[in-house]
Amino acid sequence: MQSPELDHVQKVWDRMKPNSAIYRLLLSDITITTASNGTINGRLIIQPLHLNSKGTLHGVVSACLTDWAGGLAIASTGLEKTGVSTDIHTSFVGTAKEGDWLDIEGRASKVGGTLAFTTVEIRKVVDGTPGPIVCTGTHTKFVKQ
After folding, report:
1. What averages of pLDDT result for each successive group of 10 residues across the chain (145 residues)?
2. In 41, 45, 71, 106, which residue has its Cα 20 to 30 A from 118's Cα atom?
3. Backbone region of residue 78 per phi and psi (left: phi > 0; alpha: psi in -120 to 50; beta: other values)
């Protein structure tokens, strides 16, 4: 049985995806695996469209995942809308290649009346569990309705 937070986050994602060409392109195969109040996890397999010229995960995909996971972490707190980005930062720590699975964790550090602050960790999946960090990110969003 799914948690109420996972049901809510999945509904928010289902509403967002058709309205974003970049999400439809880069994240069409992403799966939200878990959600609780303030936290979401997802999985994505790296495909050729996710690669840079060196054959590894492109930085724009990492930034897109930071945006996606931060927004849905905010949604996991019960908000219907995930706000507008005011700041996003991604640090590239490791790498991933075609065929690798990524585990993406988004956490809402604080969701206030005006701003929400999130952190994101993207890890390569090894033997079915999150392993080495590929990148970390922070994402701030304007959430005042």
Report:
1. 92 96 97 98 98 97 98 97 96 97 98 97 97 98 94
2. 45
3. left
Structure tokens at 109: 């550090």
Write out the H or E segment, with its range, that includes residue 7. Answer: helix 4-16
- Only one residue has tokens 């050729």, namely 48
Answer for the pair 24, 17: CB distance below 8 angstroms, yes or no: yes
Using CB atoms within 10 A of its CB, is residue 43 exposed (0-12), middle (13-18) or buried (19+)?
Answer: middle
Through-space distance between the first and last CA atoms of the chain, rounded to whole angstroms: 31
Query: For the whole model, what pTM was predicted?
Result: 0.96
**Integer Rg of the chain from CA:** 14
Which amino acid makes up residue 115? L
